[in-house]
Amino acid sequence: METNKIYSSSPLKSFPTNGGKGPLSYANNCQYQKNGVVLTQALIYEEITKKLDTEFLLSHLNPFRISDMGCSVGPNTFIVVQNIIEAVKSKLNLNKDMIDFQVFFNDHSENDFNTLFKSLPVERNYFAAGVPGSFHRRLLPSSSLHLVNTSYALHWLSKIPEEIQDKNSPAWNKGKVHYSSSSKNVEAAYAAQFANDMESFLKARAEEIVHGGFLAVLLPCIPNEANPSKCTINALFEFMGSGLMDMVNMGSVDEAEVDSFNVPLYFPTQAEVETIIERNGCFKIEKMQQICRPMRGFTRQEVENFAMTVRAAMEEVPREHFGSEIAAEVFNRFSEKLVESCVFSDPTYVPMIDLFAFLKRI
């Protein structure tokens, strides 16, 4: 039955960010993502105060329910949630006792929820709950959410496309770890997987969000018609692949292991995202805006800090494939190559871009 598929809890691929609060943790190395969240605070606040229908809100049962999907371990998720609550209260001119807020923090079950909940603001003005599971599936009851947010999560694929790991496929990604400088067949396989995942996400959210509710999205993207290999965000994985091939040449990693390793990240264009939303048909685009994140003139320390951000977010990917010792060496080499590169100062590279979208459930 379709219902069984909707509520299935069988695991999809999961690569949690580094947990805890140590020097390699995501909690202490997420400044880049925090800056993006802060940059879009005003956009979310404005859209809520302009577009939230007061009669709609008051006609629905208390409390106002919010979910942050792909929340990781904080602190960025708490910034997002508090901004949403303040916007809703401002729209309704509410005092703190007029309405309750309930927040569902979602991420894969392997996420460090212990650190997340230990970090909850003591003086928060909402009830908090954790919802483990992949957001590519249904997580909550029908029409139970008023607003869903997801930041820096939708570019993670639910799985590596099968054809890029098949030696007999024209999309076999031999010697590469990403699609950015690979063949068009590899890029197309990544794009198709992203489209399938995004469609699954929208379908699930369309069932969970009440009609008139909202979905806020923030994810890394590249300009329409851009060459992926000349986009800074994709160039990062050139360095990772280069470091791995150095290790192959040194004999510390088997070449076949590298051939079977691929990074499950895809950075879409705005046009791709718009097409998927329109095809889904359940959401109206209220606002869509690209936010440029120039990263010119970085000092060595700033570049090393950025490399640490990448490591904290995705170290589990090579760790699962190669083991902890090799994964640590991968990121040590990645940091060195990033520092030595000119990717942040070369004007021929497209700087980091985020895409903000605010959608209404119709």
Structure in words:
The chain has 362 residues and is an alpha/beta fold. Helix content is 43%, strand content 17%. The chain has twelve helices and seven strands. It has helices at residues 2-6, 31-51, 54-59, 76-92, 113-118, 184-208, 232-250, 255-259, 270-280, 300-314, 316-322, 324-340; strands at residues 64-69, 101-107, 127-132, 145-151, 209-221, 283-293, 352-361. A seven-stranded mixed β-sheet has the order 3-2-1-4-5-7-6, sandwiched between helices.
Largest sheet: 7 strands, mixed
For the residues shown, what is the average pLDDT? 93
The CATH topology is given as: Rossmann fold
Number of E-state strands: 7
CATH architecture: 3-Layer(aba) Sandwich
CATH class wording: Alpha Beta
Ranges where pLDDT stays below 50 over 5 or more residues in a row are: 1-10
Determine the strand fraction and express it as a percent band: 15-25%
Classified in CATH, the superfamily is Vaccinia Virus protein VP39
Q: How many individual helices?
A: 12
The SS-based structural class is alpha/beta
Number of domains: 1
Helix amount, in percent? 40-55%
Strand order of the largest sheet: 3-2-1-4-5-7-6
Report how far apart the termini are: 26 Å
Q: Determine Rg (CA atoms, Å).
A: 21 Å
**How are helices and strands ordered from N to C?**
HHHEHEHEEHEHHHEHHHE
Shape: globular
